[in-house]
Amino acid sequence: MTDYDLIIKQMEALADDSSDHIPIMANVSSLLFYAMEDINWAGFYLVKEDAKNDALILGPFQGKVACVRIEKGKGVCGTAWAENRVQLVPDVHAFPGHIACDSVSRSEIVVPLHRGGEVFAVLDIDSPIPARFKEEDKDGLVKLAEALEGIIK
Ligand code: SME
Questions:
Q1: Rounded to a whole number, what is the distance in angstroms from the first to the last CA of the chain?
Q2: Matching CATH number, 4-152, of 3.30.450.40, 2.40.50.180, 3.30.1360.120, 3.40.50.720
Q3: pLDDT tens-digit series, residues 101-142
Q4: Is beta strand 87-89 parallel, antiparallel or unpaired with respect to 41-48?
């Protein structure tokens, strides 16, 4: 079982006095990627509002290369953003519209991050093991997301 409280402490120590989200997210991606067993991708997508339409853009991550842009409501990440809700997906093949960045991924969890009451990013973690993520992972990652929201101003 992943020690999420330890990861939160490490994240807070590494954040120092900085509230710049990119380096903090980069370190969180690394902390999660090396602390969690049986995962193949951990990272962030950032909400980008532009004249064309709002989308998620690839942010700091660890793992294989991933798709750069995800429209609102598309895939697991775009659904977490649109619904403002954690997506715990035991079988990605059963999730309508799942975006397969790495074909080995079998299960996934996506947690929305908020700033000023709005979703400004999502944390995405993929696993090659079906049903890898449990309720305790969801609880731990939501706690981590809340701590991250408190650091990023
Ligand atoms: N599977 C995600 C896309 C991002 S990759 O997993 C890194 C989705 O369906 O939104």
A1: 30
A2: 3.30.450.40
A3: 889 999 999 999 999 999 999 999 999 999 999 999 999 999
A4: unpaired
Amino acid at 45: Y
CA dihedral 69, 74, 76, 79 (to 10 degrees): 120
Query: In the structure encoding, which two tokens stand for residue 131, read together?
Result: 């049903």
Sheet holding 55-63, edge to edge: 69-71, 55-63, 41-48, 118-127, 107-115, 87-89
pLDDT, tens digit, for every residue of 98-108?
Answer: 999 889 999 99
User: Residue 15: helix, strand or coil by DSSP?
Assistant: helix
Pocket of ligand 1 (CB under 6 A): 41, 66-67, 70, 75-78, 98-99, 101, 105, 108, 124, 126
- How far, in Å, is the centroid of ligand 1 from the Cα of 18? 28
Q: Is 54 helix (H, G, I), strand (E, B) or coil?
A: coil
SS3 labels along 107-152: EEEEEEEEECCEEEEEEEEEECCCCCCCHHHHHHHHHHHHHHHHHC
